[in-house]
Amino acid sequence: MKYSIGVPLGDPAGIGPEIALLAAADPQLRELCRPILFAPKPVLERGLSLLPKGIPIPPLKAWDGSLSVEEAPSPSQDEGEFLFYSDVELRSEALPPLAKISAAAGRIGYDCLQAAAGAALAGRVQAIATAPLHKEALKAAGVTQAGHTEILAALYGLPEDSGLTLFDTLGLRVFFFSRHLSLRAAIDRVRAPALLAFFRRCVASMGELGLSGPLAVAGLNPHCGEHGLFGDEEDREISPAVEAARKEGMDIHGPIGADSVFHQAKEGRYAAVISLYHDQGHIACKTYDFHRTISLTLGLPFLRTSVDHGTAFDIAGSGLADPRSMKQAIMAAAAYCQRRAVDQGAPSRA
Question: Which of 206, 225, 298, 328 could, after both became Cys, cross-link 221 (CB 3.0–4.6 A)?
Fold first, then answer.
């Protein structure tokens, strides 16, 4: 059996439907896993109509989610078809327009995510790989959470910060101590007790993914503050947290200058880097390979991967959408499921 990966198509006004369909149709991906698309059928049909001509696209086949993974169509039965979850319905008769922020689009994106998460929690799919949502569309739809991670935590009654974000760009792995905060708020959060608790979560998550090796903490200030010349957070908060972690047996190093630590990790010196704020790690990963950077959300009842780009309204419907990040996210979900199964001694599905 292959792993089944749920793929909610994100905001239907953006490129999510296009990249999800293109990725799911890729023979290399379908050899590795079974993608199941979560979106109303009209959204899928419009997405198909927007794809470049001449690309072989399998026909759609409905799956209502009532069957278990073992009872669902086998890979040999569905390898020539797209499986899509048939119970996500439009709440209005008309599709929201492309490339425009709307409450209708935000609601569809939310419904797709909720359905995929429900299937994952029920064991119908082993992980989900998400296409991009638009934060303003979510807000217009009355969704109070800022994005995927916060929505998924809320759906299961978990604290908003329970999701742990890990980027993987061709083996360069980056954890994020903070995500959607202003730079001032992110700096204010850098405190030794919070850092130590976060280090513990990172080490535990590495083990759950079947990964091992030393972790590095990126410095916050230029040259790690030069002992107070350019800021004292390294001496006052970060170094004490690292020392405390090492006393607990964690293989953590730093702080190491952010202008070099990501390169060192790319070269294999560290298994992952802990970025202390959003852009610090995003810039490193996206510069290394923008189209093959994927995000993993850990700490939830199931594994979630995602593209690391937005809805790209400027090219929605133009045929220019690049599916590489979406394809990478789906394949990474299957690969991490496989790695985790092997590490835990479970039988392989490949």
Answer: 225
Tell me, what DSSP letter sits at residue 25? Answer: T
Give 75's pLDDT tier (boundaries 50, 70, 90): very low
Strand ranges inside 143-298, DSSP E: 164-169, 172-176, 215-218, 252-256, 272-275, 293-298
Angstrom distance (rounded) from CA 203 to CA 208: 9
Residue 232's beta-bridge partner residues? none
Pairing state of beta strands 293-298 and 303-307? antiparallel
CA distances, 328 to each of 117, 259, 325 (Å): 20, 27, 5
Rg value, the chain, Cα: 21
- The two structure tokens encoding residue 194: 């919070």
Q: Count CB atoms within 10 A of the CB of residue 341.
A: 17
Whole-prediction pTM: 0.86
| Best CA proximity match to 332, nearest among 115, 35, 105 | 35
